[in-house]
Amino acid sequence: MGLSNSSNRLRTALRGERTYEKRKILVLGCMGSGKTTLCRMLAKSANAQLCPARFYKHTIENNLLEICKEIYRIACAHNIIGSQQFEGDMTILMNFRHKEDLHKNAVEAMKRIIKSNLYSEIVKDKKRILDLPYNAPYFMTNYERILDSRFYPTDADLTIIYSQTVGVNFQSIDVGVVRYELYELPGHHIFRRYWTEFYPNTNVIIFLIDLSDLCRAAMYDGGHLQDKVRKILLAVTMSKLLHNTSFILLFNKRDLLEEIGAGFSFAGLGAGMKSWESAEKYYMEQCQSAVPPTNEVYQHIMSLTKKPDMNTTLFESLEKIFQSGVRSLDLE
């Protein structure tokens, strides 16, 4: 005869082990929505083991390298005066294979492009900056430190970088008597077909949504981003394996939407869309409509790069979902 759950807990307690109530959470979203940043912040808040910061040095340098390439490409596409004189530098960067440390020629080429007038000319028109990665301003401000041979990544660097999820990132986070088992899944369309393999026994799905997409041309006139997130979310919620699963919709990059949205035309979303606030409200309603009324759903607006207070957002929602006295975490 098997032992009851209470008997198992008693035997565990007598051995001096701690018992946890396990909760399975999937972290989903499209590429660049902020999944990795969220998981790292949660892990750090719970003092969980993290990958050493030095391991991200290559990724951070590569982010800056790609930004320099984009600056040159956009400058040429918009016929910005002086862009052609950096053709030689671009050739150096295109031929560079970032397998080891940045070599001197690549560093000097990047510095010349960054110090030129190309970036300032691009950002004069807010519509042009949308072609650049959202973290471009941060890298343009910190490029000297990043290109220094003694560079060591900071927490701010790790929060702002873009690092594509490859495979499955698993993180176990203990909060009081609850053990949250987070599975971060890749957002690329090639990998989304495998999401269903992780659905069984899932308690909560945290779905991240990039609000800055509202300011991208591809969101309008039949572009590839138009209605993309809602359709992906709808496909997730329609799975019978998630009939009793709760959803937390995290609308990320609010700061970027507010910055770029001023003066942007959202008329393509529908009548009455005269501001980024109205566009945001419409987008949130569209996404929430993809979750069936039978599933519990919570929504939060945030900017992960601004280190939001998770105690009043994510963990508050988790407490309500699990109806347990989970203590707060300090993310400061």
From TrEMBL:
Q: Name one GO molecular function term.
A: GTP binding
Work out whether the entry's keyword set contains RNA-binding: no
Q: Which GO terms describe its biological process?
A: adenylate cyclase-modulating G protein-coupled receptor signaling pathway
State a GO cellular component annotated for this protein. Answer: cytoplasm
Say which domain of life the source belongs to. Eukaryota
Q: Which SMART domains match?
A: G_alpha
Residues recorded as binding Mg(2+), renumbered to this chain, are: T36, T165
The answer on whether this UniProt entry bears the keyword RNA-binding reads no
Keyword annotations: GTP-binding, Magnesium, Metal-binding, Nucleotide-binding, Transducer
Q: Where do the annotations place GTP binding?
A: N252, K253, R254, D255
Checking SUPFAM superfamilies in the record gives: P-loop containing nucleoside triphosphate hydrolases (SSF52540), Transducin (alpha subunit), insertion domain (SSF47895)
**PANTHER family referenced in this protein's UniProt entry, alphabetically:** G PROTEIN, ALPHA SUBUNIT, GTP-BINDING PROTEIN ALPHA SUBUNIT
Q: What is this protein called?
A: Gpa-18 protein
